[in-house]
Amino acid sequence: MQSLRLLLQRPGRTALAITGLGLILRLFGLGARPLWFDEVISAVYARQDWPDLLRLNTGDNHPPGYYLALKAWLTLFGREDWVIRLFSVGPGVAAIWLTWLIGRRIFPERAEIALTAAALMAVSPFQVYFSQEARNYSSLAFLVLLATFFWLRALETNRWRDWLGMGLAGVAGLFVNFTTAFYLLALGLFPFILWKEYGRKGVLPRIVLTGAATGLTSGLLLWPKLSNRLDTIKDNFWIPQPDLLIILRTFYSFIFGVLDPASFLAAFGLVVIILLVAGWQVSRGLFGPERPALALTGWLLLGPLLLLVLISLVFQPLYLDKALIACAPYFYLVLGWTVFRPRKRPGGWVLAGVPLVVAVLLGLWLLPDMYSGRLNPVYIARYDAPAVNRYLHQQAQPGDMVVNVTDIGWLPLVYYNENLSPAKFLLKEYPFPNVFPALLQQLNTRWVSQGELTGRTWLVFELNLPPDAISPEARPYTLTRDIPWMHSPDFQSQTLGKFQSRYKVTSAVVVDRLLLVEFNLS
Questions:
Q1: For the whole prediction, is pTM greater than 0.90?
Q2: Which of 192, 265, 385, 415 lies at a C-alpha separation of 20 to 30 Å from 289?
Q3: How many CB atoms lie within 10 A of CB 55?
């Protein structure tokens, strides 16, 4: 406890040190793994001229803000993989500091709670990963937390400059990621739940005006794109309906981020224990003097989550762990309060603190495998595209074709092709395309149908292999009925079976997570 008192003597300096630790952890391994499908999308967009970038973005489910900012970044600093990912580090580190500021505002007399939340933000593999990924999620977290910081100040002071700060951060967040809307809606609803208190303060009219201005400004900027994409999202989106297990997995992600089959059951058990202890302690704390702070923290954690569940059930599944990245800081605040809540008996923190410490240590132990790409978060289909291209180039003969059965397996191969033969194509019959014609044009490739294939052809499939079975070296693979497919298992299996029934298999090898099956179609 003496060390804790020393840290709390100057909590601002301790928070700054924690933020520095978060920066260091986010700078490791930036170039250690190739870009995966979503990151390649970002890199391809950012390499275009400004008009072409906006034209390409019309076929994307995300708004253009992140891509435009990334293009400016690459123009200044180059196009290497580590530079592309470095752009996400800044917002991720700033989110640690904002977590500290928000925690201090919600629990003004309890610096240890805010420091715990900031520390969990700094070391969580979930936060580290998305602060390195070349996507918009660290920017989403930063801008939503910035809007929340101004919102908290506005609820206290009702000053127009704070409402303006909230609105500008909200517009910027919407221009980066549409999920910002769920966070802003949760912020807007809260004062109306406590309408008597905030009605007396004059908050309600100003938050209505702020919301209207934010919505109008964002609508003028983004409505043509959003209205153009609604039908596409409705007709073709792969995210499953959220259920209790998926929601529990979200809290697992907040702590561990990556999935390790070897330790998953133990890690998930730790999360269940942590949730049960936190739920029990918070249920008791809601009858104590810190009820307002706990209720506010709980709303900021669960409000956007529940809204996302609702829209997923009513409209279309949109629930993703990474889209809830800006809820995680409030989970960390709840855990900080659970560990340091006032207790009558010394040592009462053990029940809450020990499982959390063990979980943090396990998460840190997983970090090296996350940096290398051996372990990835849910839905991240990463593989070593340069190694696959090298193998194909070594085996290639004039006239050979490489045809990817899924687009997630295809795009990184094309991006890292480096003018190596043979050419890579995408199977036209794939029923769930994530790419569009303009993107294919920019990459100088195209879809091909099964009827167009002739001569020596490689079909490339995605496999869901355990980390210990992954290697950049080509290894022979036996084609059986029990192949562990990654995406679209029925389509991949049917496609392989159809080709096997018609043509001779010359060879079948696995490189990293990709299965390369060579056919002679002559």
A1: yes
A2: 192
A3: 13
Asked which of 328, 348, 372 is the last residue of a domain, the reply is 372
Bridge partners, 424 (sequence order)? 402
Range from 3-17, 239-253, 275-289, 387-401 carrying the lowest mean pLDDT: 3-17
Q: Is residue 379 part of a domain?
A: no
For residue 73, the one-letter residue type is W
Residue written as token pair 């033969």: 421
* Nearest partner of 470 among 482, 486, 454, 487, judged by Cα: 486
Look-up of token digits 């295809």? 410
* Secondary structure, 3-state, 6-55: HHHHCHHHHHHHHHHHHHHHHHCCCCCCCCCHHHHHHHHHHCCCHHHHHH
- CA 51/CA 28 separation, integer angstroms: 34
Question: Around Cβ 419, how many Cβ atoms within 10 Å?
Answer: 5
How much is the average pLDDT of 213-219? 92
Q: Convert the pLDDT of each residue in 259-303 to its tens digit.
A: 888 889 999 999 999 999 999 999 998 888 899 999 999 999 999
- The token pair at 302 is 């669960």
Determine the Cα–Cα distance for residues 490 and 481; give it in Å rounded to an integer.
12
Radius of gyration (C-alpha) of the chain in whole angstroms: 25
Q: What is the mean pLDDT of residues 181-199?
A: 94
Among 440, 437, 429, 434, smallest CA distance to 491 is for 429
Q: Of 328, 351, 372, which residue constitutes the final position of a domain?
A: 372
380 belongs to a structural domain: no
Q: Do 512 and 473 contact (CB within 8 A), yes or no?
A: no
Q: Is residue 403 part of a domain?
A: yes
Judged by DSSP in three states, 477 sits in: coil
Question: Starting from the edge strand earliest in sequence, which strands make up the sheet with 456-462, in order?
Answer: 447-448, 424-427, 401-404, 456-462, 514-520, 504-511, 475-476
331 with 393, same domain: the answer is no
Find how far residue 1's CA is from the centre of its chain.
Answer: 36
Is the domain of 317 the same as that of 426? no
258 closest CA partner among 126, 121, 381:
126
Total number of domains constituting the chain: 2
**Percent helix, strand and coil across the chain, each to the nearest 5:** 65, 5, 30
Instruction: Specify if 105 maps to a domain.
Output: yes
pLDDT digits (tens, 9 = 90+) for 38-97: 999 999 999 999 998 988 888 788 999 999 999 999 999 999 999 999 999 999 999 999
